[in-house]
Amino acid sequence: MQSPCFRGLIPSIVLGVIATGLCGCGGGGGGGTTTTATTTTMTTTPNTCLCVFDVDRTLTASQKLDCANTTVKQGIPDPAYGGGTLKLSQLAPNINETFCSRCYSGIVTRGEAGGNAGGHDSKERKLILGMLGGKEKTLSEEWQQWQADPAGKPSQNPAWSATSSMVFEVNDGFKNQCVESIVAWFLKLKGILIEPEMVHFFDDREDNIDCFKSTRYNAHQVSCAGRDPTPGMQNVGKCGATTEEIVESKGGVHSKCAAQQRSEVVV
């Protein structure tokens, strides 16, 4: 599959960075000055987009509740919400049937997707990477652990920055900060500019949509057909997202489940 950044006409903006330094060290002879020029190429197309997904109850479904059109993956454990055998939502194996097939892909999840800080090779993570389209779409195979503010606040550590498009253990209600860091990573380290209105985030929890209201990113609540009936769990989805919920919008559209139907607010 051709990478999204090579489709269509590709204008490139070359940014020149001039670095100067002194030859010689420690006060030795010479004293000459050299100038070195380096360039960074920034690539974009009119349709460069990014789809970022939550994992638990977005790409997955409840392990124990009955869910139609889902896929049980025998032999792959899912530790989320009490644990069990991994069950994929209707969306997960069909992401390539949505508009996101034209976009880069990322993950921002509160859970660990079956792994831990060093568990990049967990079965669940490998499966998710493949469903996202592989490294061609994520530009990384590593899963990065998010960091909260060391001052004890639930928000993102100001010193933390994304080094991957797949990030785990992100606090609910602050996922917008992580998505912003991922977009910055695409630009700074990969040279790919993704405009805010071309960023799309999907999550089953309402608080993870509300935190995007001050942004120009698009954020949509999914798993709207049914909510987990377990006491204390009504704020999470039951069976995960469907392909019909992966809607393409532009300009900061935020939608949430309301009486089993979407209500849209454009900012």
Structural overview:
This protein is α/β, with parallel strands linked by helices and about 270 residues long. The chain has four helices and twelve strands. Strands 7-8-6-3-9-10-11-12 form an eight-stranded mixed sheet. Strands 1-2 form a two-stranded antiparallel ribbon. A hairpin with a 2-residue loop joins strand 11 (about 255-260) and strand 12 (about 260-265). The longest helix is centred in the C-terminal third of the chain and has 16 residues, at about 175-190. It is globular, with a radius of gyration of 21 Å. The relative contact order is 0.16.
Brief write-up:
This protein is α/β, with parallel strands linked by helices and 267 residues long. It is built from four helices and twelve strands. The chain has helices spanning 123-132, 135-138, 175-190, 207-210; strands at 12-22, 33-43, 50-53, 71-78, 84-88, 104-108, 144-145, 166-168, 199-203, 218-221, 253-258, 261-266.
How are the SSEs ordered, and which strands pair?
Layout (H helix, E strand, L loop, with lengths): L11 E11 L10 E11 L6 E4 L17 E8 L5 E5 L15 E5 L14 H10 L2 H4 L5 E2 L20 E3 L6 H16 L8 E5 L3 H4 L7 E4 L31 E6 L2 E6 L1
Query: What's the overall geometry?
Result: globular
* Fraction of residues in helix: 10-25%
Trace the largest sheet across and list its strands: 7-8-6-3-9-10-11-12
Main β-sheet description: 8 strands, mixed
Number of beta strands: 12
| Mean pLDDT reading | 83
In quaternary terms, these chains amount to: single chain
What is the CA-atom radius of gyration, in angstroms? Answer: 21 Å
Count of helical stretches: 4
How large a portion of the residues is in β-strands, by DSSP E?
25-35%
Alpha-beta content class? alpha/beta
SSE topology string: EEEEEEHHEEHEHEEE
Which consecutive residue ranges, at least 5 long each, have pLDDT under 50?
Answer: 1-39, 259-267
Distance between the termini: 35 Å
